[in-house]
Specification:
The protein is about 45% helix and about 20% strand. It has about 375 residues and is α+β, with helices and mostly antiparallel strands. It has three domains: about 120 residues, PAS domain (Beta-Lactamase, 2-Layer Sandwich); about 70 residues; about 150 residues, Histidine kinase-like ATPase, C-terminal domain (Heat Shock Protein 90, 2-Layer Sandwich). The structure holds adenosine-5'-diphosphate.
């Protein structure tokens, strides 16, 4: 008998599974969960009763003999993240969505901060009663690597921004000089350089904001400014960078808001450049806002590719890109919408999208007045 035939040999006790004990007798879920060191939890959707496994209790810093209620667990979550975590769980529970969250906890006995990731959702009704359940694991090491990476990106982009800003100023000076000399070749060439420099500055600003967002540090420098004026500026900038698209600014009553002007500018640039990127050059893009009692709602509408309903939920996650035949040739990092959501959330606003594949998308965000 060679090695392979030994591996495939059927044990004499007629156990055809190839396992030490009959396959049916193995609790596959428990064996796999124990090996992967993940905890499990179940919540009854009617009574709200929460049942954590031993490993789940351990991950939250409770001994295997101690009881742990849902509230006990949430009290271990670092305060800054508690509200966000509770909202995400509540949302997934009420709307029966998939749940995916990460948060830091500080658990006794070592008082060290650890990151946990929780994944879950409603089980299929074919598996008996439908429970809200999922798994939980320690992702501290992965998170520390992510933080190191984003710190590095932050440092590099900061260093790149300074010379590029100087370059932009010199291009501007040269192009003023060329205009005085009526040197049309130099004017044309410098305008192309200017476009590329602005594109790079936008990318660098996105990377800088990304590293801030990933470190949980988006600092807002709030000031009072006219939203209508900013929108007009951003439309001009987008036309300059993308070229060729037809962007219509819907006439709106002037409004002043108190927000971080530079960051809201970044949100508008991201939404408008996406609208241009994911639609045909001939299709119109509309941008405008409506005033409500307590907030202003800005919308960017395109008549482009649109987004399938199953992808809409994931759009605002970091590094997510829709994979399709149409999008595979369009370049991007998948961070623009994540940043938009982070910036808008930090302003206590909301961002959402309405979309139909093949017809177009409307991205809307609110800012408090
Ligand atoms: P990027 O455009 O760099 O990939 P984003 O975070 O800005 O990253 O967008 C994430 C994904 O959402 C994109 O890859 C694209 O598939 C989809 N998307 C964003 N905006 C639009 C839009 N206006 N129309 C269609 N799809 C869009």
């Amino acid at each position: 008998m060679n090695d392979n035939s030994a591996k495939n040999a059927i044990p004499e006790d007629n156990n055809t599974s190839g396992f030490t004990e009959p396959f049916e007798a193995i609790d596959i879920a428990s064996v796999a969960l124990a090996s992967a060191n993940v905890g499990i939890w179940i919540m009854d959707p009617i009574s709200g009763k929460f049942l954590p496994s031993e490993r789940t209790r351990e991950l939250f810093g409770f001994s295997t003999k101690e009881d742990m209620s849902f509230e006990d667990a949430m009290l271990k979550v670092v305060e800054k993240y508690r509200k966000i975590a509770l909202e995400a769980i509540d949302n997934a529970f009420k709307k029966q969505h998939a749940l995916y969250i990460e948060f830091p906890i500080v658990a006794i006995p070592d008082h060290k901060q650890r990151w946990l990731s929780v994944t879950g959702g409603f089980s299929s009704p074919n598996v008996g009663n439908s429970y809200f359940s999922g798994i939980i694991m320690d992702v501290t090491e992965q998170k520390q690597n992510d933080l190191r990476r984003s710190k590095f990106i932050g440092m590099v982009s900061h260093e790149l921004k300074t010379p590029l800003t100087a370059l932009k100023a010199y291009v501007q000076m040269l192009s003023n000089w060329a205009k005085k000399q009526k040197d049309s070749f130099t004017i044309g060439a410098l305008s192309k350089v200017d476009t590329q420099v602005r594109k790079m500055l936008n990318m660098i600003n996105s990377l800088l904001n990304l590293s801030g967002a990933e470190a949980g540090k988006i600092h807002l420098k709030k000031e009072e400014f006219r939203l209508d004026v900013l929108i007009n500026e951003v439309v001009e900038e987008t036309l300059f960078i993308t070229g060729g698209h037809h962007i219509v600014t819907v006439p709106c009553d002037p409004v002043s808001i108190n927000a971080d002007r530079e960051k809201i500018e970044q949100v508008l640039i991201n939404l408008l450049s996406n609208a241009a990127k994911y639609s045909d050059k001939t299709a119109e893009i509309e941008v405008g806002y409506v005033l409500h009692d307590t907030c202003v709602e800005v919308s960017v509408k395109d008549h482009g590719l649109g987004i399938a309903p199953e992808n809409i939920q994931k759009l605002f996650l970091p590094h997510y890109r829709v994979e399709s035949k149409e999008t595979e040739k369009i370049a991007g990092f998948g961070i623009g919408l994540y940043l938009c959501a982070e910036i808008i959330n930090r302003h206590h606003g909301k961002i959402r999208v309405e979309s139909e594949p093949g017809k177009g998308s409307t991205f809307k965000f609110t800012l408090p007045l």
